[in-house]
Amino acid sequence: MVYVKWGFWTLFWLFVAAFFHYTLPQHDVVRITDTYEKRIDFGENSIFWAKEDSGNASGNVNRDVFFIQTKFPNEKVMVYRNEDTSAGWPPYFKFDTANLQAEAADMKSSADAPQWVAVKHYGWRNEFLSIYPNAVGVKAVEGPDVTFIPWLNILILTVFFAFVWAIYVRWRRFRQARIDPVLEDMGDSLEAAGDNLAEKRGRFRAWLDTWRGKAR
Predict the structure, then answer these.
(1) Beta strands of the chain (E only): which ranges?
(2) Exposed, middle or buried: residue 50 (CB in 10 Å: 0-12, 13-18, 19+)?
C-alpha cells in the first residue's frame, strides 16, 4: 500500500511539473534563418496545436501554419510554430500571428553577420510526434549570452506552491481534529474486541481441556 501511495504522488507531481514546463513561457536566444508557411494535416498530435487563428473558420482538419526556423549559438536547429492562442489555453491572448511572422522575417540573418533574437515561446519540440513550441514574441538582443530572469514563472510557481501549502495545512488540521480521533477510537474498539476475543478463546480452551480431562 505504501508503494501505491508513493507511486501515485510521484506520478501526480510529474504531471504537474510537465504541465508547468509546457505552459509557462521560456526564452531562447537564437538566430533566425528562415520563415515559411506550411499546410498541416492534424492527427493524433492535434492537442499540441493551437486552435484556428482568430476570425478563421473552425473545425478544419488542416490549415496553413507559420513556422520560424532558427539556430542556437552552437548551431543546433530549433523550429517554432507561430499560431494564435486567442482566448484559449494557454492564456497568452495572442492574436498577432501575421505581425509576429513579419517581424521574424525582418530579423533573418546569416552566420557571417548574425542578428541574435530572443524568442519567447511555450511548448515542446518533438521530432517523432511532429510537435513544435509556439512562438509568442521575438525581440532583438545584444548577443548570444543574454540571460533572462523568469519573473513571471517565479511568481506563478510561488503562488501555486503557496496555495498547495495552504491546502495541505488545512487538511492536516482537519485530519488531526476530525479523522485521527475517529481512527483512534476505531483502533481502541478493535483492540478491545481483540482482547475480548482472546479472553473468550482462552476460556474456551480451558473448558475444552477440562472436558477432555473428564472424558478420559
Answers:
(1) 26-41, 62-71, 77-82, 116-122, 134-140
(2) buried
CB atoms within 10 A of CB 26: 14
- Mind listing the pLDDT tens digit for each residue in 30-49? 999 999 999 988 777 778 88
pLDDT, tens only, 130-182: 899 999 999 999 999 999 999 999 999 999 999 999 999 988 888 777 776 66
Give the span between the Cα atoms of 71 and 30, in whole angstroms. 5
Grid coordinates representing 145 are 549570452
- For the record, the C-alpha cell of 167 comes out as 491546502
CA 215 → CA 112, 201, 205, 206, 209, distances in Å? 110, 21, 15, 14, 10
Which tens digits make up the pLDDT trace of 73-92? 999 999 999 999 888 888 89
Contact 9, 92 (CB under 8 A): no
Burial class (CB in 10 A: 0-12, 13-18, 19+), 201: exposed
Q: State the Cα angle at 26 between 23 and 30, rounded to 5°.
A: 140
